[in-house]
Specification:
Oligomer: heterodimer
Radius of gyration of chain B: 23 Å
Number of helices of chain B: 11
Helix content of chain B: over 70%
Structural class of chain B: mainly alpha
Largest interface: A-B, 86 and 82 residues
Strand order of the largest sheet of chain A: 1-2
Number of domains of chain B: 1
Strand content of chain B: under 5%
CATH topology of the domain at 64-248 in chain A: MetI-like fold
Strand content of chain A: under 5%
CATH class of the domain at 64-248 in chain A: Mainly Alpha
Chain lengths: ~280, ~280
C-alpha cells in the first residue's frame, strides 16, 4: 500500500517537473503557428531584410528594427559592461564587508525596479539632457543605450561577481606570493581565470537588453527607419510588438507574432551560448 | 613611460571605487527622483478612490486591486509547480538526461523577454482558452514567467538542507514523501519563501506581459474574468500618453515603495536563513 502511494507521488512530481518544459514547447508552438504562415507568404529573406514596414500596404520588412535592436544593444554594452565589471571586481575584491553588505542589496533593488520607471526617468532626465546638449530630438539610440546600459548592470554584476568569488583561493595567494600587487593579480590572474563566467554574464546582459520593451518604448522615439547616427530615433524588435500589438489585426498581427519568433530565436541563441560557455568549465 | 605597478594599483582602485559609487548614485537618483515627486501625491483618497476621467482625477484603487489579484493568481499557480519541480530535481531523481532537460527548459524560460510571454499569453490564455483579457489570463501569464525564479530559489533552498535530516526521517521509518513533508520542506521554507517574494516583485513590476493579457480596463475587477489594469500598466499609460503627470508620479512612488518593501523582506528572510544554517 505504502509502495503504491510512493509511486504515485513520484509520478506526480515528474508531471509537475515537466511543466516548465511543456510551457516552453507551448510558447514555441503557438508563436510559430501564428507567425510562420506570414513569414512564408512574405518570404524569409524579404521579412528579415526588407527595409519597409508599412502594414497598411501589406509591406512587412523588419530590417530597420533589427538594425535598431543591434545598435541600442551595442550601445548598452558600451555603457553598461565596463561599469558592471568594475563594480563586480569591487564587490569581489575591494569592498570592505560593511560596504558590500550595502551595495549588494542595492544592486538587487536595481534589478527589481519596474522597467517603466526606468523609461520614465530616462524620458524626464536623459532625453532632455541629450536634446539640449547634443542636439537631435533627444529620443534616440543614445538615450536607449544609457537606460538599457543601466538596466543590464544587475545581471552582469551579480554573475561576474559570483564567478570571481568561486575561484580557488590559491590563485590569489600564489600571485601575491610572487610579489604582484592586488591590481596586477586581478588583471593577470583573476579576471582571465573567471573569463567564462564573465563572458556568460555579458551575454545574459545582452539578452536582457534585447528583450526589454517598455523602458525602450519611452526613450527611443520609435521611428521605423534605419538610423544614421546615435542621436537618431529608432525602433527595436520588442518595441515594434509593444507599440502595434494594441491595435493590430489580421495579417498585421501575424507579422508581429513573426517578429516575436525572430526575437525568440535571438534570445535562445544568446541563452544557449551562455549556458554552453559556463558548462564547459 | 611605463606606469609602475604601485601607481597602476592606485589608479585601478580609484576607478573601481568610482564605478561602484556611480552605480549607487544612479540607483539613488532614480529612487529619490520618483519618491520626492511622487510621495506627496499619495494620500488616502489616492489609494481608495476609483480612477475617474481616464485617470486624470480620482485615485488608483482599481489598479491596486488589479495588481493584487493578478499577483495572487500568479503566485497560487506558480508556487506549487515551481516548488514541486524543485523537489523532483533534488529528491526524486539522479542527475541525468531528465534533470538536464528540465533545467535547460527552466533556464531558457527565464531568459525569454516579457513581451514574448505577453504574445504567448495573448494567443494561449486570451484567445485559445477564451479567457479574454482578464485577471486570470494576466495571472496565468505571470505564473509562467515567474516559474523559473521559484524553481531556482527553491532548488537552492532544498539543497542546503543537511542530508542528516533525510537520514533521520528514513531511519524513523518514514517514507520519502513523509520525510520531505515533515523534515526537508519546513527547513527549506524560508528559502522557498524568498523565491515567492521575488516572484511577487516581478508581478508587481511587470508591464509588457500584463498589458497584452489582462488588458487596461480601469473598472474595479469583480471576478477572475474581469479585464483589469495593474499599477505598472496604469503608470505606463499615464506617463506615455501624458494624461496626468502628477498621478503618474504618485503611482510610480507607490510601486517603488512596494518594491522596496519586497526587497527588504526577501533580504531579511535570506539573512535569517543564513544565520540558521550556521
Amino acid at each position: 500500500m505504502k509502495g503504491r502511494a510512493e509511486k504515485f507521488t513520484e509520478h506526480l512530481f515528474l508531471v509537475v517537473a515537466l511543466s516548465s518544459l511543456s510551457v516552453l514547447a507551448l510558447i514555441t508552438v503557438f508563436l510559430f503557428v501564428e507567425g510562420v504562415p506570414l513569414i512564408a507568404k512574405v518570404g524569409l529573406f524579404r521579412f528579415l531584410f526588407g527595409t519597409v514596414w508599412a502594414p497598411s500596404q501589406n509591406l512587412y520588412g523588419i530590417f530597420p528594427m533589427i538594425v535598431g535592436t543591434v545598435a541600442v544593444t551595442l550601445g548598452a554594452v558600451l555603457v553598461g559592461v565596463p561599469v558592471a565589471l568594475a563594480c563586480s571586481v569591487f564587490l569581489a575584491e575591494f569592498a570592505p564587508t560593511m560596504v558590500r553588505n550595502v551595495v549588494r542589496p542595492a544592486i538587487q533593488l536595481l534589478a527589481g525596479i519596474p522597467s517603466v520607471v526606468y523609461g520614465f526617468w530616462g524620458l524626464l532626465f536623459v532625453v532632455p539632457f541629450i536634446r539640449s546638449h547634443l542636439g537631435g530630438p533627444g529620443l534616440s539610440i543614445l538615450a536607449g543605450s544609457i537606460i538599457l546600459g543601466i538596466m543590464m548592470l544587475p545581471t552582469v554584476i551579480s554573475i561576474s561577481e559570483v564567478s570571481l568569488l568561486s575561484l580557488p583561493r590559491q590563485y590569489k595567494e600564489g600571485a601575491f606570493a610572487l610579489g604582484l600587487t592586488h591590481w596586477q593579480t586581478i588583471r593577470t590572474v583573476l579576471l582571465p581565470a573567471a573569463k567564462s563566467g564573465i563572458v556568460a554574464s555579458v551575454i545574459l546582459g545582452i539578452g536582457r537588453a534585447v528583450g526589454e520593451t517598455m523602458a525602450v518604448i519611452m526613450v527611443l522615439g520609435n521611428a521605423v527607419a534605419i538610423p544614421e547616427s546615435i542621436l537618431d530615433p529608432a525602433r527595436t524588435l520588442t518595441t515594434n510588438i509593444g507599440i502595434e500589438m494594441g491595435y493590430a489585426s489580421g495579417e498585421h498581427q501575424q507579422a508581429l507574432f513573426a517578429t516575436g519568433i525572430v526575437l525568440l530565436f535571438i534570445i535562445m541563441l544568446l541563452n544557449s551560448s551562455a549556458q554552453l560557455i559556463t558548462r564547459k568549465k | 613611460m611605463r606606469i609602475s605597478p604601485k601607481t597602476s594599483q592606485r589608479i585601478a582602485k580609484v576607478v573601481i571605487w568610482a564605478a561602484a559609487l556611480l552605480v549607487i548614485g544612479v540607483l539613488l537618483a532614480i529612487l529619490l527622483f520618483i519618491l520626492i515627486k511622487g510621495l506627496p501625491e499619495i494620500d488616502w483618497k489616492f489609494l481608495t478612490e476609483i480612477p475617474r476621467n481616464m485617470g486624470r482625477d480620482g485615485g488608483i484603487s482599481s489598479t491596486i486591486v488589479g495588481t493584487l489579484l493578478v499577483t495572487a493568481v500568479a503566485i497560487l499557480v506558480a508556487t506549487p509547480f515551481g516548488v514541486g519541480t524543485a523537489f523532483f530535481l533534488t529528491e526524486y531523481t539522479k542527475e541525468g538526461r531528465m534533470t538536464r532537460i528540465i533545467r535547460f527548459s527552466a533556464e531558457s524560460l527565464s531568459g525569454i523577454p516579457s513581451i514574448v510571454f505577453g504574445l504567448f499569453g495573448f494567443l494561449f490564455f486570451v484567445m485559445y482558452l477564451q479567457l479574454g483579457w482578464s485577471v486570470l489570463s494576466g495571472g496565468l501569464t505571470m505564473a509562467v514567467m515567474i516559474l523559473p525564479t521559484i524553481i531556482r530559489t527553491s532548488e537552492e533552498a532544498i539543497r542546503t538542507v543537511p542530508t542528516a535530516y533525510r537520514d533521520v526521517g528514513f531511519s524513523l521509518g518514514g517514507t520519502k514523501w513523509q520525510t520531505i513533508v515533515r523534515a526537508v520542506f519546513p527547513s527549506a521554507l524560508p528559502g522557498i519563501a524568498v523565491g515567492v517574494i521575488l516572484g511577487i516583485g516581478r508581478c508587481v513590476a511587470e508591464t509588457a506581459a500584463v498589458i497584452l493579457t489582462a488588458g487596461s480596463a480601469l473598472r474595479m475587477p469583480i471576478s477572475l474574468f474581469s479585464p483589469t489594469r495593474t499599477m505598472a500598466v496604469h503608470f505606463y499609460i499615464m506617463a506615455r500618453e501624458g494624461i496626468s503627470i502628477e498621478k503618474a508620479y504618485g503611482t510610480a512612488a507607490l510601486l517603488i515603495v512596494l518594491i522596496l518593501l519586497i526587497n527588504v523582506g526577501a533580504n531579511l528572510l535570506v539573512n535569517r536563513f543564513v544565520a540558521k544554517g550556521k
